[in-house]
Amino acid sequence: MSDRFNGYDILVIGGGNAALCAAISARRGGASVLVVEAAPKFYRGGNTRHTRNMRCAHDSATETLSGPYYEDEFFEDLWRVTGGNTDEKLARMMIAESKDMLNWIVEQGVRFQPSLGGTLSLGRTNSFFLGGGRAMLNALYRTAQNLGVDVVYDAEVVGLDIADGRFKAATIRHDGREHVATAKAVVAASGGFEANIDWLKEGWGDIADNFLIRGTPYNRGTVLKMLIDRGVKQIGDPTQCHAVAIDARAPKYDGGIITRLDCVVFGIVVNKHAERFYDEGEDVWPKRYAIWGRLVAAQPDQIAYIIFDARSLELFMPSLYPPIRAGTIAELADKLDLPAARLEETLSQFNAAVQPGTFDHATLDDCRTEGLSPPKSHWARRIETAPFYAYPVRPGITFTYLGVRVNEQSRMLMADGTPSRNMFAAGEIMAGNVLGQGYAAGIGMTIGSVFGRIAGREAAAEVRTGTPKPAIAMEIA
């Protein structure tokens, strides 16, 4: 047994937003805390490195938000994207708690930038981190370490000792050796299993081989599987996840947000047979972009193509890779290895169905098709101005929703529904409590921050019942 991993009140497993919020909250509650991160220091933070913003309720405009976003509207948005597949009690609690997160997270050193306009349509609802996710993450690490939280990198949890619903110890692989770490409480914030292709295939079948993983390759679900195997109640569907359409040229892992494509609403999307398969203008992008990964996954060979023309080229945020360009539709089809005659026919049918309207990329405008299946409900403009462009896209998995069941204290529930005394969870590993399906931009960070803060607070309170400690309220350096 190594002293390096022992003598702490609370063990936090994971190194992203949820883990750091839990660690800071627990330390401010008077507990000693050790964070173990499976990744090397450079790659610390899981998917938080690739985030840009978080969605929180607020009652008025601020310096960084253009207007109010009330709790009821937040819940209505969540209810709509999940199709009601959410724990309403937990969801409403999370939304209520999110109102204070914008202040609390700033108190931990995170800075926000002024609100954004344009096609993202998030200036009122979402706060964007100044410097992006990595800057936000670095601020949390800086605060945690100033408070006295200890962090060990390249430290993978490979074993859990749980008896009668109570955590006793974890086995941690570090520096080529295995160490046993005891603690009075544990917070699991180690992400989902999206980087475990074999596990994805259990739900999706062989098509998962064609999926790209947008985030960290370290989220393999090791801790999640051990928790479920040791009697923690699971929640969620193994096929439900945050999945968007990303550039098919992206790397298998860790391509991040710069491989995402925000241009679906400005054109049409066709499969390998040059056929449309869904309404590209169904809703504003933040509420509907996360359905496209699943839609593309259902297409032959899990590949699709976004087709648009010169008028739309500069209306959206560019991605890492340039679009494929051609002077004619036939030439574009040849470059994409699509049947040219069928693509020309699909474009012709679409153009003929477009109705007159006033195009406005920032609102649900009146530009639509008529007599076309599937329709395009908004932002429908004829695609006829050369040059023509295309992006090839595949399903990009961000994180999975199968996870552990928790209550309002972020305590894990055992298989019989009994809350664990000393096991807590936050972030993607328990996101399925709120996200049964679907996604709204920025809500993953909300889940991580809110439940991380609660988990740390409750874990510290649990520890204090046995060994009271004074709360820590020190200034941020």
Overview of the structural elements:
The radius of gyration is 23 Å and the shape is elongated. It is of the alpha/beta class. The chain has helices spanning 17-28, 71-82, 88-107, 132-147, 197-204, 222-229, 285-288, 292-297, 329-336, 340-353, 443-464; strands spanning 8-13, 33-36, 53-55, 126-128, 150-152, 156-163, 166-174, 177-188, 212-213, 234-235, 241-247, 268-271, 304-309, 324-326, 388-400, 403-404, 411-413, 419-425. The longest helix has 22 residues, at 443-464. It folds into 2 domains: 3-239 and 401-464, FAD/NAD(P)-binding domain, CATH 3.50.50.60; 242-396, Flavocytochrome C3, Chain A, domain 1 (Alpha-Beta Complex). Helix content is 27%, strand content 20%. The strands form 4 sheets. Strands 1, 2, 5, 6, 7, 8, 17 and 18 form an 8-stranded mixed beta sheet that branches. Strands 9, 11, 12, 13, 14 and 15 form a 6-stranded mixed beta sheet that branches.
Summarize, please.
Keywords: FAD, Flavoprotein, Oxidoreductase. The chain is 27% helix and 20% strand. It is an alpha/beta fold.
Protein topology:
Elements: E1 8-13, H1 17-28, E2 33-36, E3 53-55, H2 71-82, H3 88-107, E4 126-128, H4 132-147, E5 150-152, E6 156-163, E7 166-174, E8 177-188, H5 197-204, E9 212-213, H6 222-229, E10 234-235, E11 241-247, E12 268-271, H7 285-288, H8 292-297, E13 304-309, E14 324-326, H9 329-336, H10 340-353, E15 388-400, E16 403-404, E17 411-413, E18 419-425, H11 443-464
Parallel strand pairs: 1-2, 1-8, 2-5, 8-18, 9-15
Antiparallel strand pairs: 3-4, 6-7, 7-8, 10-16, 11-15, 12-13, 13-15, 14-15, 17-18
Helix pairs in contact: 1-4, 1-11, 2-3, 3-11, 9-10
